[in-house]
Amino acid sequence: MAASEFGDAPRRPLDAPRPPLDAPRPPLWVALFERLCAARGARLEVEPTYGYAGAIVAADGRRSVFKGTNFDINPAGAAALARDKDYAARFLSAAGLNVPRGLLVHAPQRIAAFHLKNPAIAARLPDSEAALAFARDVGFPLYVKPNEGSEGDGVVKVADAAALTAALSGLCVRHDRVLVQETVDGADLRLVVLDGAVRAAFLRAPLTVVGDGLSPVSALLAARLATFSAGGHGARIAVDDPRILAHLAASGRTLASVPAAGERIACLANANLSTGGTAEDVTDTLPPALAGLGARAAAALGLRFAGVDLLVEELSADTPRAVVLEINAGPGLSYIHRQGGAAAARVEAIYADLLDAMLAG
User: Fold this and answer.
1) Is the pLDDT of residue 264 over 70?
2) What is the distance between the alpha carbons of residues 156 and 268, in angstroms, rounded to a whole number?
């Protein structure tokens, strides 16, 4: 790689001192884009300290910057809209797509700040009492999540009013806006869309343990999470994570519960791969109706590149019924790539086409 405007070039001379053992490893897409850029006469500039942000420089000097998996291919306004789950759902609904019913709850500190500027607006902002009224109307269980969170951070499934109040209290300390959302049953499907075409589809499942009739959930979970470390990557979750405790409690279980032999226990409400979920590649068997739905959802938010999350009632049906749960403007594919084989090849093909689209302008 060429020298970067950020400082020294990310690629060190062979005789340069080795970085500390605890130095951060560059993300997967950095290594992939380095190789892909070289094959196209472009170059990659990467901020050297963390390797998490940089620029793709075309042969003619045009630059396309990135931070994490957020690339320049999406307009800034579209990406910001997708991050806001409540606004995104409103746009999707206006486009005729099914979305879960939800209520955006404003934290006490946000309402207080609005009250100083405009008491009339502050009086209309839904609070925890409005959330309880929403729960009475929609029914439990419900999901509670940060309005602009990602990778399953802070997502809690609540089974009653007490759990809802506790979840809101905890999340409102760290977030100004929290989304309360109805539960929609169905298979969790992640579609990767690029320029109107679904390039990959993955059926996801949450972090799950299988009982042996002897071991408590805590031991089964510890063994399950240890497999991630053995594979060279870690799940962003621990056995005693409050989200796990809350999810188990919603089904009447605790970490001390002993599942029957063969019994499958989902330990989280969300199926994010970063929190121990699993993914099965179903691209080749994806019904055309779902592919069309994914493309429509990305277009409704003005996104060229997106991860579209669907909840599908019956995946094998000719005309499957689905709800658009949310859309990610910077879908991460690293966990898929680590599966190797055909999954890794599919991810690399997506990144190759993504790079070509950015270089084409």
Assistant:
1) yes
2) 8
